[in-house]
Amino acid sequence: MAVTSGLRLAIGKRAGVASGLLGMLCVLGELCFLFPDLLVTPDALPMYKQHLGLFRAMLEGSILLTFVLGAAGLVLARPNRHGLAGLLLGATALLMGGSKAEAIDIASPRAFSVGLDYFVLELLALGLVFIPLEGIFALRPMRVFREGWQTDFKHFFVSHAGVQVFSFATLIPVQVALGWTTRFAFREVVASQPLWLQFLE
């Protein structure tokens, strides 16, 4: 009986953590649907629009799985903060529009984007591929949510979205300071000068 109780507790905790992480990805995915011009990689937008139905189905399935895992976590392991967080995040994703979310038009087009879509899809794909592989071909017994997994997750986030934000913080001041050099009138003036002078400039 003690073993069964311990197993229920372990499954409940894992379900709760999985629900919390998946719920977070659902909310981030909703943000990508709502603000594609700001958050989605520009080169990937045509592909997303072409397969919009597929991505909406993926989001809907992820929200549903978030609720299922969160509920299982609360039933099997109480109290379960991660499971409760997963349910709240799933509810937030639904309130943001769920799989029917429509893009909010931004007044002015953006020359850059955060690339949040890449972070969400890659984390989801890596989890679906490598978690089963580690379980099947494990060199030694290891838990999915092993000690230090939060540090790995933070590193993964910073190495993707963090690098993008740092790049924008570097490029934006340069664009503001030197944006006048891209104006057509300025380029005409430079083009009218002798080649040797253009080279020196």
Give structural notes.
The chain has helices at residues 2-34, 36-39, 45-50, 52-76, 81-95, 116-136, 149-178, 184-191, 195-200. The chain is elongated and about 85 Å long. It has 9 helices and no strands. The model has no long low-confidence stretch (mean pLDDT 78). The protein has 201 residues and is mainly α.
Strand content: under 5%
Count of individual helical segments: 9
Instruction: Kindly state the number of beta strands.
Output: 0
Tell me the major beta sheet. Answer: none
- Which shape, going by the Cα principal axes? elongated
What's the Cα radius of gyration? 23 Å
Helix content: over 70%
Structural class: mainly alpha
Unreliable parts: none
Gap between N and C termini: 82 Å
Could you give the topology of this structure?
Elements (H helix, E strand, L loop, with lengths): L1 H33 L1 H4 L5 H6 L1 H25 L4 H15 L20 H21 L12 H30 L5 H8 L3 H6 L1
Briefly summarize what is shown.
This protein is mainly α and about 200 residues long. Helices cover about 75% and strands about 0% of the residues.
Question: What are the key terms here?
Answer:
single chain; 201 residues; mainly alpha; 74% helix
